[in-house]
Design brief:
Layout lengths: L2 H131 L4 H21 L2 E4 L11 E8 L8 E6 L1 E4 L2 E4 L1 E7 L5
Parallel strand pairs: 2-6
Antiparallel strand pairs: 1-4, 3-6, 4-5
Length: about 220
């Protein structure tokens, strides 16, 4: 190969190398610019996302704070209600104890007053018994017992005790207790024919119903 040809090929290789090198540099520059642009774009997107997230978080945090405050207020109200309920319960328990104590005291006083009024009757009964032992006349003893009975009724009447003696009246299940039915054409059905045991009311409250016999229609009729 001639020297001229070799020189031309050598020059050609050098030129290609230069061109290739320039192309690589341009490609690198372009790639670098693309990466830089991509990074810049992503950074802008992140900043935008970050700004949106921050606003959302602010609203969320504000809402959470409001809810916490509301919960705290409700807890305080609930604690106040519990304290009030416990106080009222304690007061009610004290009231019940006080009421029971006062009731027992009133009953004790009432019993004391009643017994004090019955003591003279007890003395009269003892005197009547002694009269029987001393052989006094029966009529005198009966008169003494009648006096005692009247005194006893007077004491009970003072205490608003009323007897229930419904003979001849229409049977009333509120105050009478029928233990027997007897056929009778002379009486209206349900008439009290006989009182077997008196009933009693105290301050219009039933203590004991009267035990009675009641009429019914004859089966023949």
């Amino acid at each position: 190969m001639s020297e001229a040809k070799k020189q031309n090929e050598s020059n050609s290789e050098i030129d290609y190398s230069k061109v290739s090198s320039k192309n690589n540099e341009k490609s690198k520059e372009k790639s670098s610019k693309n990466r830089s642009q991509k990074i810049k774009t992503e950074s802008i997107k992140k900043k935008k996302l970050k700004r949106k997230k921050t606003k959302s978080e602010i609203r969320l945090n504000k809402k959470i704070t409001e809810l916490k405050q509301e919960i705290d207020e409700k807890k305080n109200q609930l604690n106040d209600y519990i304290d009030t309920l416990q106080r009222l319960q304690a007061e009610f328990e004290n009231y019940k104890k006080r009421t029971i104590k006062e009731k027992d005291k009133l009953v004790s006083i009432a019993n004391k007053d009643l017994i004090r009024e019955l003591l003279p009757l007890l003395d009269d009964f003892e005197r009547a018994i002694n009269s029987c032992k001393n052989g006094n006349e029966v009529q005198t003893i009966i008169e003494g017992l009648n006096i005692i009975n009247n005194q006893f009724n007077q004491v009970l009447n003072k205490k608003n005790l009323k007897e229930i003696y419904p003979e001849g009246e229409i049977f009333d299940p509120r105050y009478h207790e029928a233990v027997m039915q007897i056929e009778s054409d002379k009486h209206e059905e349900g008439t009290v024919l006989e009182v077997l045991q008196k009933g009693y009311l105290l301050n219009d409250i039933l203590l004991r119903p009267a035990t009675v016999k009641v009429s019914k229609k004859s089966d023949k009729s």
